[in-house]
Amino acid sequence: MLDDKMKLEQYFKDEIDRVSGIEIKQIDDEIADIREKALQGLEADAQREAGMVREQELKELQSEHAIRLSKAHEETSRKLMAKRKELADLVFKEAKDKIKSFTKQGDYRDYLKKKAQELGKNNFAHAVFLIGKEDASYQDDIKKAYGKDCEVQIDTDIVLGGFRLECVEMGIVVDETFDTAIEEQKEWFYTNSGLFIK
User: How would DSSP label each residue in 23-90?
Assistant: First the structure.
């Protein structure tokens, strides 16, 4: 699992390096070509005109060069950010697909029962379990595993699976949904994946 993560991170880094390297080389080549042509023109003009005119044109060229370089860097950053988003979306789509696959297996029922049983060890008053509509068939399993009086309700916001236990009277919410877990992992992923834009 760690090896797959490292391979995936290396793939992302390599892909970003490759794409940015190509674009930066193209920009540098274009800038070098523009600079060469402009310098040739300026040298010819400078021979005919006074040194002050030449100096003014060089300043304008440098300013134009700086503006073009800035625009090129902005465009490259925009493309790299789009690629980063595309790669991250792909990673999280695959993660969601694996979660959905897990929720179709018998182990998922056992997972829900185990989590409910662990929460049953607490003294939560008037507990309400919120589950996704895909998990409606597990209502009795959750109640039985919890071992105490509780309600199970459908929450259409829970799409991937898991459940959320709420005790309104005690101000307690225990979120065991895969939906929340995947959202929390997105923040971690963006911080630790190495897919940042300089």
Answer: HHHHHHHHHHHHHHHHHHHHHHHHHHS-HHHHHHHHHHHHHHHHHHHHHHHHHHHHHHHHHHHHHHHH
> Which residues are CB-neighbours of 197 under 8 A, at least 6 positions away?
77, 80, 81, 84
Single pTM value for the model: 0.57
Give 137's DSSP letter: G
CA–CA gap between residue 26 and residue 48 (Å, rounded): 34
**pLDDT tens, residue by residue, 88-132:** 778 888 888 898 989 898 899 999 999 999 999 988 888 999 999
55 or 17: which leads in pLDDT: 55
Q: How far apart are CA 95 and CA 106, in angstroms?
A: 19
Please list, residue by residue across 146-165, b when 16 or more beta carbons sit within 10 angstroms of its beta carbon and e when fewer do: beeebebeebeebbbbbbbb
